[in-house]
């Protein structure tokens, strides 16, 4: 028998597939309507574990959708179809500035976060730009070189 978490996450995937959900509050309401009481923190963790991010849908609305990634237990690989989303990578001291196709900043930042680079302290995404912070200029160069294969 599936655990409560597995049942909840299956329900989340079903809701995302069949409804337009554009916020964590909206997802919490949909879960509540289905009889599942959750906190915002639980929804946030579930979205992360399920690799669901807000992306523009065909109607131009930001909605939760699944990332297209190939992940195994040892290494994260960006799906080749995702590589066209990155247009440039530039190192500035201990930061990396990643430019993306329009409306793909959050999507690519999620891919970078999923890559689990030990040198990355954090990412900050906008519409088409991501700031990737590392501890040092040397670490930024290392990460940037690895990310160059994504271009």
Low-confidence stretches: 69-76
Total number of β-strand segments?
8
CATH domain class name of the largest domain: Alpha Beta
- What gap, in angstroms, lies between the N and C termini? 44 Å
Give the strand order, joined by hyphens, for the main sheet. Answer: 5-6-8-7
**Number of alpha- plus pi-helical segments:** 5
**CATH fold descriptor of the largest domain:** Gyrase A, domain 2
Give the radius of gyration: 17 Å
N-to-C SSE string, H for helix and E for strand? HHHEEEEEEHEEH
Give the second-level CATH assignment, the architecture of the largest domain. Answer: 2-Layer Sandwich
| Helicity range | 25-40%
Averaging pLDDT over every residue, what do you get? 84
The main pleated sheet reads as: 4 strands, antiparallel
Structural class determined from secondary elements: alpha+beta
> Globular, elongated, flat, extended or rod-shaped: what is the shape?
elongated
Strand proportion, as a percent range, falls in 25-35%
Total domain modules? 2
């Amino acid at each position: 028998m599936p655990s409560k978490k597995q049942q909840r996450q299956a329900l989340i995937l079903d809701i995302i597939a069949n409804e337009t959900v554009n916020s964590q509050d909206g997802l919490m309401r949909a879960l509540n309507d289905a009889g599942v009481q959750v906190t915002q923190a639980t929804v946030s963790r579930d979205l992360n574990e399920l690799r669901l991010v807000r992306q523009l849908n065909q109607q131009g609305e930001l909605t939760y959708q699944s990332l297209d990634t190939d992940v195994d237990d040892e290494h994260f690989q960006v799906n080749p179809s995702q590589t066209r989303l990155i247009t440039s990578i530039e190192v500035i001291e201990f930061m990396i500035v990643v430019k993306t196709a329009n409306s793909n900043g959050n999507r690519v930042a999620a891919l970078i976060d999923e890559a689990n680079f030990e040198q990355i302290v954090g990412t900050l995404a906008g519409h088409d730009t991501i700031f990737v912070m590392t501890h040092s200029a040397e670490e930024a160069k290392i990460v940037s070189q690895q990310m160059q294969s994504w271009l």
